[in-house]
């Protein structure tokens, strides 16, 4: 019985330890989406890429609230991370983002991944590109603000203009 308790305690202790700091990931994401100093973007992407797959959920959340420049930086970070778990996020952005440049960047990355040597990621990217084509053929796409769409309704992905952009780190 004592051995079982020790094993259970050890398992619970290991499960409670996190090897990823969500606060640190958030700090790097904030540099990408809020700071307008280009010299900070590359190093922040490199640091964020070290978290690999663990950074993807927070990056996905940031895609929905960031201005277009921040969303483009996040796509560059997805590229640097290179994990196939980002494919659904990129697929959604490629279909629904309100900014054409952001949609195109997400689709370009998926296209590049679809043709690379990582077979699992390539298969996921190809399936995502097929889904993007089906949705576009069906007329499914971003909702727009004002004269470009339905007045007063929010977009499905991303802020239309910089929100809370300040240059303070």
Compact description:
With 169 residues, the protein is an all-alpha fold.
What does this 3D model show about the protein?
- It is a single chain.
- The protein is 63% helix and 0% strand.
- With 169 residues, it is mostly helical.
- Helix 2 runs antiparallel to helix 3.
Question: What are the SSEs and their pairings?
Answer:
Elements lengths: L1 H15 L5 H13 L3 H12 L6 H8 L4 H14 L5 H10 L3 H15 L4 H19 L32
How many helix segments? 8
User: Number of DSSP strands?
Assistant: 0
Following the backbone from N to C, one meets helices and strands in this order, namely: HHHHHHHH
- The low-confidence parts are none
3D shape: globular
* Class from secondary-structure proportions: mainly alpha
Q: Which CATH class is shown? A: Mainly Alpha
Overall pLDDT confidence: 83
User: What percentage of the residues does DSSP assign to strands (E)?
Assistant: under 5%
CATH topology: Serine Threonine Protein Phosphatase 5, Tetratricopeptide repeat
What share of the residues lie within helices?
55-70%
Total discrete domains: 1
Largest sheet: none
CATH architecture: Alpha Horseshoe
- Using only C-alpha atoms, the radius of gyration works out to 19 Å
Head-to-tail CA distance between termini:
53 Å
